[in-house]
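Hey,
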Amino acid sequence: MAGIRHCPLLSVRPLRCLVDEKFEVVVQFLLPSQPVTLHALLQSEDGDFWEAFGHYKGDASGSVKVSEDVSLGGSYDGLEPMGLLWSMRPIPGSRKGLRFRNKDVFKPIEVHISVYEGHLTKWFKEKQALASVVAERWYSSPGVQRIDVREKGLKGTLFIPPGPGPFPAVLDLWGGGGGLVEYRSALLASHGYITLTLEYIGLKDASGTPQNVDNDYFEAAFSLLKQHPQVCPDRIAMMGLSFGVSVTLGMAAYSSEINPKCVVCVSGSHIMPVNGSLADVFKEIKKNVKNTRYDEERRIIWRDLLLPIPDDPSKKVEMGLIQCPILLIVGEDDQNWAAAESAEDMKKMMEQAGNSHLLTVLSYPHTGHLIEPPYCPHVRSSNFKLIEAKTTVVVVWGGQMVPHSKAQEDSWQKTLAFLEQHLYTHDTVASKSN
């Protein structure tokens, strides 16, 4: 009926999807050129609230489509279809040094998306939304299994895709922060890979005594995957982040028991004593503790602990020994690890050895250390727990929000393509789950 104005309608599609999938946010039945604010809010498992918002204007028909319309301001601007997620930051008054991480991979991240009249920058709780909707973002797709691994002295978690298999597999190694980090592994399982995430730093035995693991520990983990009845034994990759890169490259080069089909290395280095253990690696790092720097807010910058890149071949992995494809992902503004300098040296070593055709380097300007699956909030610095000292410091990771967020999206898509290229071949029995 002419003259009747409908209430604004806000829709998000899909309402339920994996965290690495895009969604479409649309507002309808506004007035032509009506200014509105789209606001996204979520609560972390630790109880902290994160938010993002963009300023928009309705088109001639009174609609806003985030994938096609530009944000005129807010926590992001321009044409940014997923800006409502990657530009999230803790709400004003939050605790300092926060980093968004999910521990319960079988619980969705609930994102409350609302549209408000006018261009707002604060006081969202005090305003009445024109419309709201809740979108669910998941790390695990339906049917993914989670299994605790506590055998052969290992401490880890195994994620298995739905279906009988057999599947390719990934051994997932995180960095120096220690602990058991599961969300990337759950997401890889959602894409069709049996994935074992392994805890290997700060381990303690039943009596609470610290344990230093050696090569046997990682070989046992690789063997567990290889012998699993649902795993294609000749289709196993290794993926390392930060300190996990040193382990991954060392195992690929020197272990007679570990023969990965390919490796993915994120924000790491090849620097480690050739004949040493993990404990020896930390000893080498501590020798350079004098190279620690601080920014104007007294936050720690560790990138110089590995510099200069040693010429002594006994202090770095012999890259010429690696005979599988390597995907190397580098943030050029990494303030935590000398990833860019290490990548340059690795490339040079492989060119000299004649195996540089196996190396693919993705190097991203203005991108920091924490290159994670896409659309998660970027933090330039955050709290970091020192395991041995039992204290917490603030560490600078680096990166600028927009380029870092775009690097996360691009590198994750290329990581999945790399794994599919080398692990999902014509003779792989299982079909991928999406």
